[in-house]
Amino acid sequence: MTGVTRSRIPALLAGLNGPQTLGNSRLFWVLWLAGVAAFALLPCVASRYQVLTASNFFISAILALSLCLIWGFAGILSLGQAAFFGVGGYAYGIVGINLIEATGESGAALVVGALAPALLAAAVGALMFYSRLKGVYVAILMLVVSLLLGLFMRQTADPAYAIGGAYLGGMNGLGPATASDPSIPNLTLGFGELVAEFDGRGRSFYWLALGALVAVYLGLRWLVNSSFGYLLVAVREDERRTETFGYDVRLIQLGAFCISAALAGLAGALYTAWGTYIHPDGFSVGPNILVVIWVAVGGRKDLTSVVVATLSLSWISIELATWGEISLLVLGVILVAAMLVAPEGVFATLGAWFGRLMVRSRRRPAPPPTAAAKLGAAR
Amino acid sequence: MEWSGQVFSWIYQYFDNMAFLLLAASGLILIYGMMGVINMAHGELMMIGAYVASAAFYVGAPAPVAIVAAGLVAGLVGIAMERLVIRHFYNQLLSSLVVTWGLSLILSQGVLLALGPSTMNMPTPFGSFSVGGFSFGVYRMVLFATAIGLIAGVWALFRFSSFGVAARAAMENPRMASALGVDTKRVYTATFAIGSALGGIAGALFAQTAAISPFFGQNYTPMAFITVVMGGGASAILGLVYAALYLAGVQTIASNVFNQYVGYVSIMAAAFIGLLVMPSGISDFVQKRRARRMAR
């Protein structure tokens, strides 16, 4: 990008643009703003059910972004990303049930929902990265962690599995321990009298989820284009070389892993708040593979592609549901086909192609470079 | 004699757990050790084997025929998978992991659509015997013997047959092997088919102890993966045996002292601790130590 175009872009966006992300042009940001505005206005035209479903899509997109960060940028594939999602969801529910009547808000529960999986990631990640486990092994061990958590949650039907007023509930899902305890609260933010309740079925929650997605997206764009982002990519491309330059690869991997877990946990907490419901099946193979499909089909190395893929694939799944239980089968076929045809992801490939097309069309009016100019450029 | 039954029960469980890990992981570790691909669809190949075996059994085929049929069908499915998809993902570990996971989703969901979620059952043959007041199924011991037999057979195939020599050459140095006239593509397909057939046979054997459903494979894959990871890639077959010896021991102790769930978790914990000491698996560790001793 030349100096002229860069100066046109508002300084605000400078930190968000860079070689680690597709879509750095003014046109991209105009389209992006239009897209966000369209989503923000959607509740004015869409039905209640569509708003409810779309809220969940935004939560899914946050989860997909969390995997995109570690897989696409740091080169750490986790097949058990739903483990962090589920832990965040359970943490939100447990803290929310215990605190909602005392404090009248569940913002603290949301924070714990992000922190608890980050702690789990720190513990498991420290073991894995500091023993320099191979990437495939990390991927599989994370899936096993997720399945074991699910197995554990399944057998918590015994009333002894109560944490304060929250009862883990086995296959019935998380709930209150006794009739006098509150159920999983709606997301309620604020202090004292100044609280706002976001009912998962309402428009307010929709806007909140959209806002969270936009915040996570912009935050990650800033992160991956910062010097830490360059480090992540360096680790992905060549661990040994990065180490030779004096960086602690294990620490970088652990850091990215914890951030990713916190984001997945945030998504999980929002999910629990959305449906006021969390169930051991959240840890099973299905949710774990869905995240991988969204990220792989979108393009693991680009945040925008992952969000677009998550939203469109989630929408396709819902549409397919009317045809019977074929949505997972179709998603499996889409995944395998995408991996064969566009290994870097369908949306990322399309995006890169579109970007090249735009650059070429902009250059067309210019006269073809002379041999002398070519020589000059080469020098 | 109460205590003799107790002691025998522990030994019996140890062998049972070992048979479980050996059978579930044998095909998987062959494919991983020889080709560097971890086949996430391995559990689904076992599921296909289980369905084929039970279908053959209810048609009236004797059990050995049903098991062989299961191995054949799973091997054919494996060939199709390798030819159509997996071929394009050699030397891309993470991508092959994801694409085979996609295949597993297609297979399990496809079978779910075709056959429905209801489970099938096969009777467990051979009856039982009792020691010190405890009753034990004979079939579990037959499983163990079969597992050892299968693994020894695979080892011998790759160690002594001309196919085995060609396969090992193709894995070690594909370009040199093909320069010497080995059709490496064919060797890859054949190895994958053998691994898949082992999965199908394992599925058919487990079908006689567990309910068969489209998600049959998911019960076996996590433990099979841990065994493969623990075994390491240096010497696939030996690694498998080491890993099964170690993990089954931990599981037997933990599930007897605590409960079944702790037994499962202990496998995971044991694998974690093992990998802290030996980051690329037991067989790599043993090989390196041997090399060091030789150097001295």
Question: What is the element layout, followed by pairings?
Answer:
The complex is a heterodimer of chains A (379) and B (296).
Chain A: H1 3-8, H2 11-14, H3 26-45, H4 48-73, H5 81-103, H6 107-130, H7 135-154, E1 162-163, E2 166-167, E3 175-176, E4 187-191, E5 194-198, H8 203-224, H9 227-237, H10 239-244, H11 249-275, H12 285-298, H13 303-321, H14 327-341, H15 346-363, H16 371-378
Antiparallel strand pairs in A: 1-2, 2-3, 4-5
Helix pairs in contact in A: 3-8, 4-8, 4-11, 4-12, 4-13, 5-6, 5-7, 5-11, 6-11, 9-11, 12-13, 12-14, 13-14, 13-15
Chain B: H1 2-35, H2 42-59, H3 63-84, H4 93-115, E1 128-131, E2 134-137, H5 138-160, H6 162-172, H7 174-179, H8 184-207, H9 221-231, H10 236-257, H11 260-277, H12 282-295
Antiparallel strand pairs in B: 1-2
Pfam families (chain A): BPD_transp_2
Subcellular location (chain A): Cell membrane
GO cellular component, one term (chain A): plasma membrane
Outline type of chain A: globular
What's the oligomerization state?
heterodimer
Query: Widest sheet of chain A: strand order?
Result: 1-2-3
Shape of chain B: globular
Q: For the terminal residues of chain A, how far apart are their CA atoms?
A: 18 Å
**Spatial strand order of the main sheet of chain B:** 1-2
User: How far from one another are the termini of chain B?
Assistant: 52 Å
Instruction: Give the low-confidence spans of chain A.
Output: none
Query: Structural class, judged by helices and strands of chain B?
Result: mainly alpha
Largest sheet of chain A: 3 strands, antiparallel
Integer tally of domains of chain A = 1
Amount of helix of chain A: 55-70%
- Number of DSSP strand runs of chain A: 5
Task: Report the major sheet of chain B.
Answer: 2 strands, antiparallel
Helical region count of chain A? 16
Helix content of chain B: over 70%
Low-confidence stretches of chain B: none
Q: What class would the helix/strand composition of chain A place it in? A: mainly alpha
Main location (chain B): membrane
Transmembrane segments (chain B): 20-41, 48-81, 93-116, 137-158, 187-212, 224-249, 261-286
InterPro entries (chain B): ABC_transp_permease, BCAA_transport_permease
Keywords (chain B): Amino-acid transport, Cell membrane, Membrane, Transmembrane, Transmembrane helix, Transport
